[in-house]
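Request: Mind sharing a record?
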Amino acid sequence: MSLAPLLAAPVAVQLHAGAALAALLLGSWQVVAPKGGRRHRLVGWIWAGLMVVVALSSFGITGGRGALQFSWIHIISGVVLVMLPLGLMHARQGRIAAHKGRMLGLFFGALVVTGGFTLLPGRIMGGVVFGTPVSTYAMPPR
């Protein structure tokens, strides 16, 4: 394990990875912790803020294709930016089952599954965790 690939990456990638890791850790705790109390709400708001950072920072990562050259994976960021406010609105309206479904969907779909793909060989996080070489696609020029 080496942080070198991440430290060599552009700032947008570093911000994205840091916020995603923090959201993954905080979200994991939130999934198993007691629900409905003050602590749940505080952690939930922090997690939601991290998810916004993850989604917005992804638009600065284009894999070397150039500015505003997005891939299909950026659709997930758009989904997060739409579904997150809906999930928060469900909680405010007392629609707890809808809130739970929306938030668990975002956690597992946008963080766990999507994050798993970042561990593939040639990707920056794969290089961090497994020490595999990072492709030039995953490391756009600064």
